[in-house]
Design a protein that fits this description.
There is one protein chain. This protein has about 130 residues and is of the alpha+beta class. About 30% of the residues lie in helices and about 45% in strands. A six-stranded mixed sheet has the order 2-1-6-5-4-3. It starts with 6 loop residues before the first helix and ends with a helix.
Amino acid sequence: MSIDETPLDLGRRFHQALVSADWDGIRALLHDDATWTLPGDNTVSGTAEGADAVVERAQLIASYGLDFELLHTLVSRENMALSLHNTARRQDAVLDEHLATVCRLRDGKIASIETYLSDVPGMNAFFV
């Protein structure tokens, strides 16, 4: 994040990189020690530790063919969150969830991500 960039700008850049599969773009937004925590008990749950692991998590989630519909980019004084509606279909499994991906920022980059979901059982059934 440049000196003129805001948390809102960073949130928009993160979402754009995610939907366009710009993994280097996501990596550039992260601190080396960044983490990403997701609830549930499935292949994408738990905490990814380190920027490379965070990018790998994003790649794995995207590999399931998700549509990451951005509803809102939300900001606090120092952090930001993405309000998303994620949908996907895989054979007989359907994903239809609302979520908040909360990003804590440090020195203009993402230090940690925590995702809050509307349907953890549905996520568990989809990401087997």
